[in-house]
Design a protein that fits this description.
Blueprint: E1 8-17, E2 21-24, H1 25-32, H2 36-43, E3 47-50, H3 57-72, E4 81-85, H4 96-103, E5 110-113, H5 119-132, E6 138-146, E7 164-174, E8 183-186, E9 194-197, H6 200-205, E10 213-216, H7 218-240, E11 249-252, H8 257-267, E12 274-275, H9 279-282, H10 289-299, E13 308-315, E14 319-326
Parallel strand pairs: 4-5, 4-6, 11-12, 11-13
Antiparallel strand pairs: 1-7, 2-3, 6-7, 8-14, 9-10, 13-14
Helix pairs in contact: 3-4, 7-8
This protein binds oxa(dethia)-CoA.
Residues 32, 34, 38, 42-43, 117, 156-157, 160-161, 218-219, 221-222, 225, 255-256, 259, 284, 286, 315 line the site of oxa(dethia)-CoA (UT7).
């Protein structure tokens, strides 16, 4: 066997699918005894995208995938792997990734990843290694969520945060290294602060239980993210061989604008760094939030090709993953 040089990997394109219904705070407030002002001040959210009945998880995932493939100018048949990050696939025995592969007219290897809100960055870490290892020349990575399927719209702690949507990227071989090493990990000891209640097994054993919905100890998740993510971000920069002064764009998971602000302060990022604020109109879309934010910033011309972006995913599990990437 000959030792071929390790190929470089980079993000080649961005794609997005935003649901058809924008829901303003006012529409949610009356169900949870809240106000538009409270939601805006505590989270930065003014409105969020909630899927229409026909906008299934698969429809959104395929929409984002098709958009990313078109933007890259490549056919689905040229891919070596399809990865789909999601935590809201209600039919896990028929993985969403395989349904996406079929909808794109392929029989490609396809793998579903559930690392909750860190799923996109986990997927990017895996895709990078698939390309660098020579297993796949190109990988499609989708982050797709339909969180309204598991949202209790009367729950004061979650109804105003979570939303729907899908984002996608094509990753492929490139002349230069465009995806830094992933820094990732988990904290299962603290995982119970964010989960589905009841879970599907409990529901099967006792059908009188209410339908599963997200239960979150928001303050504890907030504290963990605010304390740990600046350290993770610094480690990702170090792993990529860059300093925070080199970063042009910061895209933390769009969980809460206040968490983003704490990370910005913790890292002492210079004013010139463009910081994602997609949560204001998209809400928290878990594994879709980072590619959706990137897509919008690029479409609005707030970031450009070649910019160095620091991505930080974090959420249920608890799970986190971060890396530095060059924007396509
Ligand atoms: O994506 C997965 C990861 N998830 C996250 O990162 C979410 C992290 N957590 C958060 O974003 C925040 O914890 C929330 C936005 C969920 C909640 O904000 P908070 O600042 O942590 O609120 P809190 O639960 O500490 O409650 C503060 C006050 C309480 O009143 P008192 O005791 O101070 O008088 C609550 O009763 O706000 C009250 N409150 C509300 N008021 C109006 C709690 N929920 C609401 C509400 N509307 N929906």
């Amino acid at each position: 066997m000959t030792d071929a040089p390790t190929p470089h990997a980079a993000i080649l394109s961005l794609g997005a699918y935003r649901p058809g219904r924008q829901v303003p705070n006012e529409e949610i407030c009356h169900q949870i005894d809240s106000t538009d002002e409270w939601i805006r001040t505590r989270t930065g959210i003014a409105e969020r995208g909630w899927a229409l009945p026909e906008e299934t998880l698969e429809v959104m995932a395929v929409g984002a995938a098709t958009d990313a493939l078109q933007a890259a100018g490549v056919e689905a048949s040229s891919l070596g792997m399809i990865l789909v990050a999601t935590c809201t696939n209600g039919q896990p025995i028929q993985p969403l990734a395989i349904r996406v592969a079929a909808a794109l007219g392929t029989e490609l290897p396809a793998l579903e990843i559930n690392a909750t809100c860190a799923g996109f960055c986990y997927g990017l870490g895996v895709a990078r290694d698939l390309v660098r290892g020579g297993t796949a020349d190109r990988v499609l990575l989708v982050g797709a969520e339909r969180l309204t399927d598991v949202l209790d719209t009367t729950d004061r702690g979650t109804a105003f945060i979570f939303a729907d949507g899908a984002g996608a990227v094509v990753i492929g071989r490139s002349e230069t290294d465009g995806i830094g090493p992933v820094v990732w990990g988990s904290d299962g000891e603290r995982g119970k602060v964010l989960k589905l209640v009841p879970d599907y097994t409990e529901l099967r054993n006792d059908p009188t239980l209410p339908k599963p919905s997200i239960s979150m100890e928001g303050r504890r998740v907030f504290k963990w993210a605010a304390e740990e993510m600046p350290k993770v971000a610094e480690a990702a920069c170090k792993a990529a061989g860059v300093t925070l002064a080199d970063i042009d764009v910061l895209v933390p998971h769009q969980a809460n604008q206040r968490i983003t602000e704490v990370i910005v302060r913790g890292l002492e990022l210079p004013e010139r760094v463009v910081v994602a604020d997609d949560i204001a109109t998209s809400g928290n879309t878990s594994s879709a939030s980072i590619p959706l934010a990137l897509h919008r910033m690029r479409a609005e011309g707030r970031v450009k090709s070649g910019d160095l972006a620091l991505l930080i995913g974090f959420g249920g599990g608890l799970a986190y993953a971060a890396q530095v990437v060059t924007l396509p």
